[in-house]
Amino acid sequence: MFPLPPEAGNPDTIAHIIQVALAPAFLLSALATLLNVFSTRLGRVADKVDRLRADLIGAGPDEAAALTRRLAHLRRRSLLLDLAVILASLGGVLTGIAVLTLFVGALREGSAASVLFVCFGLALGCTIGAILAFLGEILLAGRGVRMAAGSGEHLR
Questions:
Q1: Cα angle vertex 55, ends 49, 57, to 5°?
Q2: Which of 37, 44, 87, 141 could disulfide-link to 129, CB 3.0 to 4.6 Å?
Q3: Residues 6+ apart with CB under 8 A from 14
Q4: 3-state secondary structure string, the chain?
Q5: For 35-62, what is the mean pLDDT?
Q6: pLDDT tens digit string along 83-98?
Q7: Residue 1: pLDDT band by 50, 70, 90 thresholds?
């Protein structure tokens, strides 16, 4: 039905085609898993913020200052999580564009390689950035736990 190039039966060519087809799928799966983790953690931060804001209503001056510090800490965590979500989502979009470029490139074979290289490279860069932002949020969360444990505060 479709004419195949003479090297299509070559095992190395077949392996390369499979690798090219599977790499974006694995990256998209990993990004989806990361987004799930990010959203779960963001939900936990939001729950903590809600509880602290409720506690702030009837708090005395000293307790209000401590609660305000904890709210600022949670705000920084949520900002890092937002960055991680944005980068992971952008990585997913760029991966989708890279896959689309693969299909278009199979039809046109011209400059598709450079577009594919840029999109997939940017997708990997965004994924790395999302992981680094998540690492920052994890470290910030650990610091908050250590600060609370050192001051005798209860974590909520």
A1: 110
A2: 87
A3: 8
A4: CCCCCHHHHCHHHHHHHHHHHHHHHHHHHHHHHHHHHHHHHHHHHHHHHHHHHHHHHCCCHHHHHHHHHHHHHHHHHHHHHHHHHHHHHHHHHHHHHHHHHHHHHHHHCCCHHHHHHHHHHHHHHHHHHHHHHHHHHHHHHHHHHHHHHHHCCCCC
A5: 87
A6: 888 898 888 888 878 7
A7: very low
